[in-house]
Request: fold
Amino acid sequence: MSEMELPEDLPQEASHEESAASVDKMYESWFLEYASYVILERAVPAIEDGLKPVQRRILHAMKEMDDGRFNKVANIIGQTMQYHPHGDASIGDAITNIGQKDLLIETQGNWGDIRTGDRAAAARYIEARLSKFALEVAFNAKTTEWQLSYDGRKNEPSTLPMKFPMLLSQGADGIAVGLSTKILPHNFLEIIDAAIKHLKGKPFTLHPDFLTFGMADVSNYNDGARGGKVLVRAHIEEVDKKTLSIKDVPYSITTSGLIESILKANEKGKIKIKSVTDNTAAEVELIVQLAQGVSIDQTIDALYAFTDCQISLSPNACIIIKDKPHFVGVSDLLKHSVADTKDLLRKELEIKLKELENDWHYSSLEKIFIEKRIYRDIEEETTWEGVLAAIDKGLSPYKKLFRRDITQEDIIKLTEIKIKRISKFDGFKADEHIKGVEEDIKTVQHNIEFLNDYAIAYYENLLKKFGKGKERKTEIKVFDTIQATKVAIANTKLYVNRKEGFIGSSLKKDEFVCDCSDIDDIIVFRKDGIMMVTKVADKTFVGKDIIHLDVFRKSDERTTYNMMYMDGTSGIVYAKRFNVTGITRDKEYDLTKGNKGSKITYFTSNANGEAEVVSITLSPGSSARIKTFDFYFEELSIKGRSSQGNQVTKYPVRQVKFKEQGRSTLSAPKIWYDAQVGRLNTDGYGVLLGSFNTEDRIIVFYKDGHYELTDFELSNRYETENILAIEKWLPNEAITAVYFDNDKKQFNIKRFRVETQTLKNKFLFIKEGNKNYLKFVTTHPEPTLTIYVGKKKADAETQEWKPAEHVEITGWKTIGTKLCDNDLLQIDATFPELKETAQATEQTEEDNDTDSAPTLF
Reply:
């Protein structure tokens, strides 16, 4: 029988369109239900207590089991499975996560390590119990809203009555259907401080704090809302010139993951190291041995740029409010939590007030019942109704003394008093109890009336009881911007075939150009006047007749190109000087007038704006009277790359030859020191150190009495927190220093000249000794010091000192002479203008002014 011959009694199948519509509707319903379930029940925390359902159920189960002793985690998991229907693995992971945060759960045994990634021991080996903090803030059966568990056998809390912003303290991560949440953890003390400020109507700010320590740049935190960003770094310390020590790991990164990222960066040639050793024990310590000849500062920058020593976190505070997901900021979270806490405190006070009023009512009732011997009125009664009526009648004269009506339930309760209690009744103790209850009622009523003050006191009590040991762990800093192209190790060799027009790292049989990194851009100039910039690759065609190529540095305003070209239409030779600061990659730029047949006749690249002298020889057949003459590039202004240039000659040019090296036409670069990030810059951030020529140096004075000479490379890193002063070094001028000698309990002063020349080595120039420190230092040759001596500055004596007139210049290792006893409070200094010297005449007046003002911190 064919498909077309179906029996008539069989049901007719629905059409294809109807079936598809039914399936679509079915899946739409199922998907929405699934998505809602994952969002509300699995991934996103509730704003009321900051917990996901599994966390809430774990804490509830632990509260049921709580007897003050530790319980095996395996037992806790079993207890929790009565409420959480998703297996023991998810419960075990969740309880480990809570325990590692060391706030709600006290742990015992091996609970793993978030820094190393080591997992906790099996649940049967480790133990836990609720912390005193959790018992204080998370539980109150009288204010808890309950719901049936998944199987209907037990009640579980819909949310715990949390009187603390747990969501901010512990943070949260979760991926749901179509959305995710990432709330970073914050410091316990700072959260409470912010809550108190909010209750007092003061502004507050909150920044993340991580248990893994490290440093964080929160400049773009955006209050933890979507679109924000936090940069997190590990501390990297220089052990010696060949060794670095990594002292912690960024949040969410483990030591093994960090090591792997370092090894990968080394394999790709981004950094050059010999080895990485993990010495982590109680504290994180990764030892990185550097390859021979590698710069410490550049390697530190490269570790931040190419490894997990620096990561970026993107907060996304998504939470459940009234059964719907909302995106908020951490300030809103705190405000909402404070409002919830106030509401819970109010409910607790109202419940307590009601209990106290009932206590007062029944205590007063009992006192009258016994003292007035009303219990004797029931001796002749034979029925229960008669007993109740007799007691009610006996109490009638006293009903006006009570604050509410006496109910039948109150009377029944009186009948349950035992004879033993009546016989031992002490009216004085009863009066004292009633008086105490009345005082408690007044206190509770006062707290309800002044609920805001009560909430402030509540938070202050939390701070007092649980704040010890919870100081900030992550250092807040502003990070310097590290450009990957500037710190990448030169791991690639660049070659060129000038005639055929190919460049790349695979042309090993052709001309070697330079070492570069595989993320560099290469700038190329051709004889036809075309310039372009392209990425380093194995082999790239950039056009024939290449005359110059080099690594391109964006925004480089010092590299100057000197060029002559012949215009293809007029035959006129033009000269121009220009910089290339920004381009579109792989786009060709014509540096001539753009006429066909134009070509470059002379070209040089000058790293510091040098302007050479060239000799130009004209064609012998030209009609020019003078056929050989010199041309001075220094007479040209530096303009844009698209400028036409100045006319050199209208006659045909036979050749252009280099004749004489010229001087730089650019002023010496000005260098600033930015104390926020401990770096030098040319962008005007921080304090101006001065204008620097190639041979100039920077001198750094440290609080412990060391000095250090450095060059002015922008890659240099400085220990800002340990620096007392940083200045441009004037080699011929004396340095004035005041330091504390702890052995003799006095301050010494000395003047000396730096005699060392080694760069980036520290030299101790004060007396060696425990607790000796540098108080004041300057490189200005003739400072005037105002010294404040005494116990308090308001009563201090002032002395004016001119060290140049009283202190001889000695060697840098000398002890110096006594300035005063150990009651020196402060030193102020003024710096007169320097007299012109042979060195000063080579600088501008602005530079002299700059050099005369030391940079003190």
Notes: Residues 1-11, 836-857 have pLDDT under 50 and may be disordered. Residues 330-371 form the longest helix (42 residues). Residues 46-160 form a domain with the Topoisomerase II; domain 5 fold (CATH 3.90.199.10).
